[in-house]
Structures
1.
Amino acid sequence: MACVGLWSWNHQPTQVPTQLTKQTGYVVAVKKIKSRYSDSLEFELSNQKVFVYDGILPNLNTVYKALSNAQQASVYLSANEIWQLDVDGHIILPPESALKARQENGQYGLILALMLLLIAVILVFVAIKHQRST
């Protein structure tokens, strides 16, 4: 787990990608996806593309409501990650908000990694102390 947390922190983006691919279509379907650790959205556009609005991105419920009542949406992607979302001509997710959310998620990864490493060090010291006392 500590390695995953360190990887997450190390691979956080430092800027919005310069090359974003735009996909536009009519909103066909929207559904919430609940998992053990986070929620996300899955939505489909008329061009038969399905997108996942990851739970680390901001305003999940607002985006769900906007997409549920929308006619058209434009999704701006880099490496299959959503960086901007426009719904009926209004920017719902600006790229700067997506960047900030991804950076905060990476910081949580670092905190998790450091906590797990601290626990591991404490357990090693306790085990060594216990072994010496027996």
2.
Amino acid sequence: MNQRTSYVIYDISTGRILGTHTRIDGDTGKSVPLGDTDVVAACGLSLDERARTKVKVLAVDAATLRSRTGLRVHTKRQELVPRDHLDLKLSRAEIRGDGEDSVDIEIRVVQSSGKPDDTFNGRIKVSTQRGRLSEPGGIVQAKGGLAKISLRSVPETIDRVRISANDIDGELDTGRATVAFL
């Protein structure tokens, strides 16, 4: 079986993956070795992005790189690792669809190891399909890896409402939860 090589270009300060590239020889079906300059050019980074971000290239087994979602480069070990993520905990799973009832949402940053990250102090945007969030635009400031927001119901009955949270800088994987409006 042929092991194919993919190349990952990443920000050396954060490990954030900026692009990936694989080149396969059409005749042999094998990976074509590339230099760092070729990879950076193939990933389509703008000159602006190249100027403001120090990047590095890492060769990895293509099978481990199914998608760049959920992965980052551990800058010291030079390997792909899961990204940290947001975890949403609801004060309860169901609320009345009367326009008055609400649920509290606790958002915690969790490291890829499963431990809470109490160093994160970024902004988080919370989105929902229905209801009204307690903060304008659904944006909350995390302090010590923790943020809180409330969702008030709307006067209607709906089976389930999805809630998602993303950090503004896009460094963390999305957190999701579901609440039922009764």
3.
Amino acid sequence: MKRLGYRLVIALVVCGAAFFILKLLFPSDTVRIRKLMTRLERAASVAPGESQLVSLGRVQTLRELFAAECQVVVDAHDYGKLEFLGRDELLQAVSAAIALRQSIHVKFAETSIRVGESKTNAAVEVAAVIRTGQRRGETLVLLKVLVKKRESDWLITRVESIRSLQM
């Protein structure tokens, strides 16, 4: 009887370990999109006095996250409505902003992910808290991000600001 109990425990441990390994090797689409958003959050934040090599790495990360035919439409309080059509145009603007050596800190406070029925597209709604070095206080920007699955990778195809509030 004891042997049966040990075998049952061992079988449960092996099944649990197999399940855990499968989750690590094959994460769900929601987990992959959450990782994409975390990479975006890190790449969008620029520390004051950052080296050019680190800045170049940020631009390369953004190149990996955005689809070539992406569209970004955001309402920036200081600059009005900004619209970028295509990844190259977006990356040129980011490179120019980084060259100004201004610091910016982006933190995604709350993220809601809805994967489409086809499992090839998703809508992400995120509250971004943005703090720049030139202005005191923070700006809360509600963003709608559309992502599409290309082969096995999720890429950002559209970013649109829904609302922004000065805090």
